[in-house]
Structures
1.
Amino acid sequence: METVSRTRATIANLIFQYASLLLAITGIVLTPLYLRFIDLKLFGAWLASGNVIGWLAMLNPGLNELLRQQVAKFYGEKNWTMLGRSIGTGWAVVTCSSLLVVFIGLLISRIVPYCFDVEAEHLKELKPCIFLASVSLALVLFSGSPGSVQQALQRSERFLVIYLFGWACGVISTVILLFKGYGLFSIPLGGIVRGTIWSVFSSLDTLYLARRKLGVSIGWSANYLFKIKGLIGATFLKVAGRVMEKSCDAFLVAIFLGVEMVPLVVFSSKLWQVAVQFSERISVAFMPGLAHLWGEGEKSRAVEIGAKVLKVTIWLVAFEVAALLFLNKTFIGLWVGDKFFAGGTFNLLMGFGIITYAYAYASGQVLFAANIIKGPALAWFARGILRVGLLIVLLKVIGIIAVPITMIASSVIILLVYLQKRISLLLNVDLMKLKRTMTIPLLVGTCLGLAGAYLVGTNTWLELVFGAVAIVLINGMVLALVDANFRAFAVSAISEMRLR
């Protein structure tokens, strides 16, 4: 039976997780091209309907994330029978849910376009594009199943190659179709090309890896499915909460404020959304390794690494907040035009929003690796419900500023209060110590970002790049001076994070 290094696997997983940000970055790079070939009002309706397509992810009951945790745990326990059953059962359920996404996508493509105030000619284009987007989503969700298995088996580098190849083919396809005059169709068709490559190649490679390399027999097990039904329910609620939280802004803005306001909110939030994903990737990358440690019974080591994952997440968020408070307005002006910047107050509140979200998400991943699943999942679902409710109430009252305010309020009310208590018990850390660990770097990042925004001007892409480098370096130096934890970690970062 072939063995692997958790450290090497986690490094590969980190590379893969950050490579997955290419999708978000591609959206940023291609947006000016979209605006050149696609009518602005139609594109606003597409962005809003994209939120509805995102809701279809709730039809995937969190199996990919649960599969990653369960396979890593059984692999750590060397329970080969349950390892094969978990892979086969999870794969079967994800296949069914992906087919359901396509069916529901067909139905909503006939309904959702009529929710927006768009011309009849745009409706003819929007309806089939929504269906094609659901097919693209189904392929992505399906490909996540074999991809999760590869990560759980500590072999993320295999899916990384497949991911990059599929991403490149998808981007090339979209650009070619745009210049060929396919308009809005170019976006979902490029997604279908990407998803097909991911699904086919990752499935074949996972079968080879499990059967030939590890000698594991993959099979469906009704008993195993029945045994984990509670965990599936919990992860479904977690996924549902996250989907509601992430896929409601543009749609509700279109309904309550009009589709012309959607690009303003989406473009002003774009870099913040990338920052959120960037901070999420650390805890997601370490989760399979942590679950593997728990499976092997090395709980003290898992607790130690889990605490460091939380600290690194907070430090990373501090750098992100400093940079984006300083540079986001300039970036939007250079990217799509000043008219799409929602204002300094919106920008500041988005910073506070990702602070609360990122810490809560990282805490949930650490608990998830320790097999503490149901409580955090219920909390995340409650957060999603609360945020949607608050948005519905507040959008008409205070306008687009409700988007970051509801992100902050729902995180503080539901997640931070609950998750901090669970994390403090798991890591055996005092709550006040946890709060102090968070406060210092975030205060530094916020103050530096605001000072940079008011005292320094940047007007070109070159100045933007130099400004970003400068704020990162200054933030790092100040943190090293005032935060003993950061100073100690910076001296020995590699050995501190090693999983052995």
2.
Amino acid sequence: MSFWNSLKISASGLSAQRLRLDVISNNIANSETTRTDDGTAYKRQDVVFASNKNQSPIPSLILSNQKTTNANHISDHENGVRVAAIVEDDSPGTKVYEPTHPDADEDGYVIYPNVNLVVEMTNMLSATRSYEANLSAIEASKSMALRALDIGS
């Protein structure tokens, strides 16, 4: 694996975790939103990750000049992660009796979003730690490249 591949993999992780943090922040910000544009309570969102498999970091022009077996081996490297989708959580929201609330139904119940702040904070910690781990990997790659340059000179 080359220096650039390691940076690309870590950078994809940084980008994916940043988007995950954005989605988590959106969930927390909407944890009390009882009416969206479609008239229902906000639905919690979650990020689905997928591998960037079979997306070669080497331009196809270079690959076309190599042996097929070598080109296939190179293109099979996994090049990090990508966000495959942002999905809504279809679990039901909390039903609370508040007959004076403007969004109360005919029985006086309001359906609040299915956002659990404890879950969101746990996910936020996980995303933050993953982001930090990718930063550490970038720093390690940079340090190794600098040491290799020192050895070569």
3.
Amino acid sequence: MRISLKRIMEQQDMQGQYYDLGKDFSNFRRTIDGADAQIKERFEQTIGQQLTGKRIRAQASRGYKQYVKTYEFDVARISLDDYYDNYVVVAQDNTTPKPKEYFLKAGYKIQILGPSTGQPSPQKGGDPKMQKPQVQQPPTPKTNPDAAQSQPMVPPPKPIKEEGHDTDTYDAYGIDAIEQDVKKWIPDLLKKPETPVREFIKKLGWMKKLENGKSIAMYQVTLPSDVLKAPLSQQALRDILTNSSKMSGTISTEFELKDITPSETNDMWTIWIKKTMADTTSI
């Protein structure tokens, strides 16, 4: 069998070559994520045009998979947030010093009462006739707050049960709140500090109030390696988060690095952050 000189040269040129499938696949995933972000933004605008700046009465909950009842409130902003791979419609009400988030129940029609009034939502929601019957919750067992703090903080292993019947429930920690936290330090890690930090936040976090007056929040951010100006290290991140911890008024806030995990191809870093908030007046 004769083989042409051209074929022999091609074979020699190809010997020792490798194809980095992980790199191209990561670029594919990033493209898909970018397309998802554009679709998400478009529908946020569509829903926001109907509800932003309005006073509404809607079936909603104050946390992911919590009790659903009728609330009446002003809508300042609409976002579609990914919570454990489930998208939820979150309406933000800014009529109180600390903005409130309402998780809208998509299966019910929303009543538009008129333009925003600037008044906070009544504590018990809207028209009692429209509310679901209240279900008696079993008492929450008391826990040792010191023991709770000493345990490793991990996200709930599964979504919280419908209607909040789980005795160990968590509130959602919103995308906006995470963005406010991380925009203080993420730009220092980037080649382009002006990059919007919101694109590194893929899902909501969670938070829980302890019996000692403290609240603990957990959330994650994902940072592609190619946007970083230097490789990440645990010690460097711990130092950065320590600098972000602050004392403001009567509220003490502390940030702590719980985990940092590279992807298999080292092109993406997943960072878990624990935030502790304490009312110093109750300590």
4.
Amino acid sequence: MTEVLRKMDCSVEFLPLERLVGNLKESRTTGLAADAIVAVVHPDGVQRDPGNYTLVNDVAKTVRELRNLDSMFAMKDGRKWSGLPVILILSGIFSGDGIRESIDATVLDQSEDYVRNLEEIRGVVSQYRQRLLDELDNLGLLVSYEHGRYRVGPALTPRDRDVEGEFYYGPADAREGIRGKYFTLDRDNFGIQYEIELFETLINKPDVRELDLQKFFEEHPHFLIATRLMQALPHVSLVDQEGKLLVPDFVLKPIVAAQRDSNWEILDLKHPQAKLLAGPSNHVRFSQDVMKAINQVKDYKDHFEDPRNAGAIAQVLGHALKHPKLGVLIGRMPESGDVEALEVAQSRETEVRIVTYDEILETQKKLVR
């Protein structure tokens, strides 16, 4: 189901049931965040024996542990794990067995293609976000609806940081600059379309600055992380043994399985109007602008692979990252006839992923469609 949901543009990651609560308790360090926890129980999960409810009982036990979590176990935005919606998707063999009454969760019957389940999950998440917004409003935070987006802030003063509700725990809210900054908590289709138009206008400007693009992505990190559960860390300062400073535009940090280097990515932003390809039709290659950007992110690669930098990297990122993926966001998608040439050029450069601004734009447009 995980891959199915990703293809439908949902940010989703898999966590083993036995490690779920432990991972939630560590979220202040890892940055783990979510809008719902979904457990799927099907015949294979009970060894094809409808009378064996061991897995269902394990889920029920985990849900009880979740509901009893102390308020201090919260996400970095202050949302309490104990208040998060839990959705249990059951195979039809479990119908009428009393599970719905015995577990503090929303229980859904499994759909063959998951589409109906996805719509039901979205409904549960929507209700949760609305209840959260109502609670934040009651706690004295400023909640507004503008351009299809629900915004919260500027929120707390040192005196009232200890506010708490069913879903929110003020002392756990560790967002930077919360006392003077608004955060988008939810978007409807109008809100998504509004942000798409902002982004499209920005990348169509011939004189747009990389600073403007950096600011946009810092305020709208979901444009970069798409369907993966990640944190977009802007302008992380890296200093090597000689004192040389490297500052990638973004470090994309996974919030699940962060110990695996391949789940991380270093991403640099370049101009949307940069030329992607150069050379005659029979020998098309990346342009000088692209090659310059590739060489720059390869400098980051050298920094991470140098064992002398491991300690400083671990202190900054919480993980001694050695082999992250490398990416450059640059240029616009070429005409259809040149897409194959772009693929050929990319196949020759396997160390650095080239992403165009049109691909970022298309991902957001799919959410509206």
